[in-house]
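Researcher: Next entry: Amidohydrolase family protein (Xylophilus rhododendri).
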Amino acid sequence: MSLTAAVAAAAAMDPWVLQPQAATSAAAMAEQQEWGDTPVELTQGTNLAIALSPDRRQIAMDLQGILWTMPAEGGSARRLTGYLHDMARPHWSPDGGRIVFQSYRDGNFHLWAIAPDGSGLTQLTRGEFDCREPAWSPDGREIAFASDRGGHYALYAYALATGQVRRIADTEGEDGEPAWSPDGSRVAFSSSGRILSVPADVGAPRVEFAGPGASAPAWSADGRRISCRQVIGTPRDVTACRLIVDGQPASDDAEDVFPVPAVWLSADELLYTADGEIRRRRIGAASTVPGRIPFSATVRVTAHRPPLRRRRDFDSRAPRPVKGIAFPSLSPEGGRVAFGALGQLWLLTLGQPEPRQLTHDRAAKIGPCWSPDGQRLLYACDRSGMLQLWVHELRTGDARQLTDSDRPLKQAAWSPDGSRIVCASEDGWLCLVDPASGAIRKVARQTAWSGRSSWSPDGEYLSLAGVRPYSARYREAVNAILTVHLASGRMRYQVPLPGVSLDVRNVNGPLWSPDGKHFIYTLGGTLWRSPIGADGSLQGAPEALGEDTADALSLSADGRRLLYLSNGRLRLRELDGPALPQGQDIPFHLRWSVARPAGTTVVHAGRFWDGVADTLREDVDIVIRSHRIAAIEPHRAHRPGVRWVDASSQTVMPGLIDMHTHREMGNQLASRDPAIFLAYGITSTRGLADNAYLALENKESVDAGWRVGPRHFGTGEALDGSRVFYDGMHPIRHASQLLREFERARALDYDLLKTYVRLPADLQERAVRMAERLGIPITSHYLFPAVAFGAPGHEHMGGTSRFGYSRTGSMLGVGYQDVVAIAGASRSFRTPTIFGLEGLLGDHPEEVLEDVRVQRLFPDAERAPLERAARGGPSRPVRMVANQVATLRAQQAAGVTVVCGSDYPIVAAGLSLHLNLRAMVRHGMPAVDALRTATANAGRVLGHDLGTLLVGQLADLVCVEGDPLADIGCAAKVRRVMVGGVDHSLEDLLAPFPAGLKTAAVAGAVPAVAAVPLAVGEAWWHSPHWVAEARALCCLATG
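Model: Predicted structure:
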């Protein structure tokens, strides 16, 4: 079955597959299914946008992605669109009969129009390319808009009479936000931080405002002036958002001007949105106080949600099947499988269900692959201090280090003739390695988080999954097939079908078939292949290979056998046999059981905080039977037969919980990762979007006692829309794919679901229902309408959004009344992940420069920026951080459960959670409330017996010096940590990483040198600047 046929079949069977919208009644759209059980009145809007009708009697308003109209003098707003339309940027036609806007209703941004009375809703544009920021021409004949249809953002005009599109402007920058001059002769627009204008009939651009940081232009009524909005500062330290007129500030820097165009009333008066309000200002007037246009609008949210039903079983010792099978690899002859599980490497011989354990140490071992003769395994391992390539001799069991690079290496693959090895370095290079000497040659620069390479049969090309953006303005892209010609460095990107993305980019292909005739990969969660030429060029339509879910693909040397994972099971498919819906399960018997200590342990706490009380208790015994707290009593010295932990000079408190991590994305820290978290008192982590099998392997390894580390509550890859950015994102185009992910989540024991920024609202609603059926929470970057559908919370303080700006926080870090009211009424949680906190390290530089945890556990590349920050001197106030904490405090007062998360590995492991706590306290949150965000609140959101030290709870605790309720910095002064009744001193955690253990290249190591000229060409997204910027901007507000 072809992909198009499969999609058509799914559409016929599944009513949730989106169909093109015809003209229909907007009233019907507005009154479609009403979600929510609780009304919420909104009187302010975060990043709200407005447009004034030509007769100046009505204002059209974008508030929380809904189109409203209201009287121009203010008042109650009337809703025109429903919760699924996800609209923005309203603009009136010159006759006042229509309002055009951009909508994400069909999974891409397109232009829609509606009458002000709510009739005649019509979709104007369609297709795989985004169409944004519409502006009606003064003569009413065209709508200007921005689109990425040409490989970057440029300006186009849509002719309403014919539907034809013409190009208006296409500069070297990313062009957007068109604004017609009143006479229609010119179009102003933003272009990579500048404001330009061009003749409406096309011509050379003229600079109107050189910026930087400029956007949202608008012409004055007489056409002589242009206003815009300017952002001052950096993404992690925005100091002002200004209204600019004639190149000069027209607003006070205290104002928080929103990233949308102003509306001019005359030559010197305009309306604009700032500080959550609609404001009116006269330019040049003696008074600098703007007027205000009040409004109110009502939405509904869900405050009463089904209780969580799925709970991890930390008590039963019954054997459980291993499902966390990491990167299985089929041997060349097709009879053996090497894989990772429970922290070790294993070898399974087909027909013998019991695998053989190959390794027995605590070092990380990632991504085994076979030598062409089947005698050796190659894998990434940090046994020597950093992830390098190691070779395991299967005949003798001997292991030797092959490479000695100054950067972590992974994703290795042996060439078919055995003469070369390709791998990826953490700093973004594809490298070739000599299997004899370990010498490394750089081949080509990768882009962000590419997949494992596959060799062409002749060894002249590599294929891998890489991200191909539509523009530099927005990073979301398709996962495409990238081929690299090794001799020249030339690169080519291809997709099986236009606008259709490959699945996750790690080890799901494309695999080059050994006969050179096909690429094999996953698409929509299942196996596909495409015919190719000798150079890897696609030669025909893709072909489905089966109907079962597939991950982690591996081929035998003759290409007849394909190994893959399917919902926790190893499967084999005979490619030269009859086509079957499913592969054959490989008999496999590997079990694990929960590790629980025997006997009774008593922790004598000099001071004790249970996570509930507002004050400390003194001289307390915490009695622990096996892994749970049995009693909390006044200290009693005589307790025969118990094991004592002496914390009589310390404060004992609940173990901390980092509620936002991506630990498998950060696997360059390898075995240091769990040690760092424990060393900073973090006994549980919550994973948001990771490789499902790596996350499950981590959970099983820790719970079984094979790995010393924090408990992990994880999910799989995030559920995104048709465009993605990270390697760990499933591009979801249809509801049938969501149903497949539902089965995958159930089979792999997900603890939560995560949806990402391009999943459309109707599929978001479906995902919420899916999570409810699984009995687990769901979260995303979006607050509304997700909480109307029943989502229990959201992430970040204004994270990455498909709009380019957030509706939960402004660039200055403020969430206004709409955000506070919606989150409070829905009784939801929020994980803030506050960024820009590295400057706090300068207040106590010894905590970096002299702290043994930083100096021994952090590799050089991760430690260097921490040391620079520590030497930077005392911190200064960061306006956006103060605003973010003020928003959190307002939300807490409204009933929101705030939980603390770091967003590791975008920030430093362990330490960054403490910086979040310190920022909260510095800006007014009581220390006890800040600590609860990482203890009691977090445990409540996880839905497990965590976060407090009460009878019956799991014995996860930390012993610290000092009083953290008086000095939040004391929470980081960890001396001991306990997970499930098993305690570890700081010395225990540091012992595997002695001082002097290599974390960078040693003297005499073979340098990595470029072997061929780099041919990036038009693939600008391979530039190190873009990759670094795209990584750094994750989860920051960008509007």
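Model: Note for the record: The chain has four domains: 18-222+294-301, 325-592, 598-654+947-980, 656-837+878-943.
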